[in-house]
Write a structure and sequence with these properties.
By secondary structure, this protein is α/β, with parallel strands linked by helices. It is about 50% helix and about 15% strand.
């Protein structure tokens, strides 16, 4: 890491972390930086990580699609995934010869746990010949039963790339409904949902509009339909970030996991973020201390059975190819 890198990182921490907290976390970050050099390791952080991780420890940051691409391209020997377990599995699928660590193996996902590989096989029996599009918020075993993966960034493009009259879309029913509203392709839905996004309501957002007349509302498509109906913009994690930078609203409600608003606010100081703070309990299992400990002990390695990994990688690669073609 160069002196410039250290200065930029310090400035960002100054923006988002109070001095009294930085006194505590900066020694941990220094430990992590030393361990990364020693292990030839890289930390990939999802946008839902807390600012101390996002700006203090991460080398690469992004949404699920961006992290999948970054994992496939990194030259590091060790990948530490600051996110939830399915993301670490995706990194391992993309890098079968690299060591992938997750700082807390209990960092799961309510959406990923809503469906199993056996469920996908039963759906294939019920709808023979209909291709399966699977959101990346799923286990490797579920991806392995799928034709192609997608993220909220490219879900519509993925569905339309198949050239079929209908698809099975798994597992998020709200994202699936939103995709169905954006395409003429018929969408067969599963009943999964994200426990964070499902908590938002349209009534809640109408309350924000009443309290802040010039507020702009942007929402992730994993939210229920009544929430999306109230939004000025609906988009993926990266799409919402791009929208804030392009539109520079005076006030905004970002309807997604709370830490993302904190991270985006640091890069958009002219915008006031009104924050309905729904936190993901699984993401919040990842801490600086756990990142450091995973590198010290090289523990919580993510292993994906090779035959499952090969089939899952085919579905992920098809997704990345769609993204590359746009």
């Amino acid at each position: 890491m160069t002196a410039t890198d250290i200065r930029v990182r310090s400035v960002r921490l100054d923006d988002v972390i109070p001095d009294v907290e930085r006194v505590i976390i900066e020694p941990i970050i220094e430990d992590i930086e030393g361990l990364k050099r020693e292990r030839n390791a890289v930390v990939l952080a999802h946008n839902y990580m807390t600012p101390d991780i996002f700006y203090g420890a991460a080398d690469l940051r992004g949404d699920s699609l961006q992290l999948a691409r970054m994992a496939a391209e990194t030259d590091a020997d060790v990948i530490v995934l600051a996110g939830v377990h399915f993301m670490a599995e995706t990194a391992k699928i993309a890098n079968p010869d690299k060591t992938v660590l997750i700082p807390d193996p209990a960092a799961g996902c309510s959406l990923a746990e809503s469906i199993t590989a056996a469920d996908v096989r039963l759906l294939r029996e019920r709808y023979p010949g209909v291709p399966v599009v699977t959101y990346v918020n799923t286990s490797a075993a579920v991806k392995a039963e799928s034709d192609i993966c997608c993220t909220s960034s490219n879900a519509v493009a993925v569905v339309e790339s198949l050239g079929t009259e209908r698809v099975i879309f798994l597992p998020d029913r709200y994202l699936g409904r939103w995709v169905a509203s954006q395409t003429d392709v018929g969408v067969i839905l599963w009943h999964g949902a994200c426990e964070v996004h499902e908590r938002f309501t349209g009534e809640e957002l109408r309350g924000y509009r009443a309290s802040y007349p010039d507020i702009r509302i942007i929402a992730h498509p994993e939210c229920p339909p009544d929430v999306l109906d109230e939004a000025d913009f609906v988009g993926s994690t990266s799409g919402m970030i791009d929208w804030v930078h392009a539109e520079a609203p005076r006030q905004v409600v970002m309807v997604t996991e709370c830490s993302m608003a904190s991270n985006v606010a640091a890069e958009a100081p002219a915008t006031r973020f009104v924050r309905p703070c729904n936190l993901c309990p699984h993401m919040k299992r990842i801490t600086l201390e756990k990142i450091r400990d995973s590198l010290v002990n090289m523990h919580h390695e993510v292993i994906v059975e090779p035959t499952i990994a090969a089939r899952a990688r085919a579905a992920v690669d098809r997704m990345l190819a769609v993204g590359a073609s746009r």
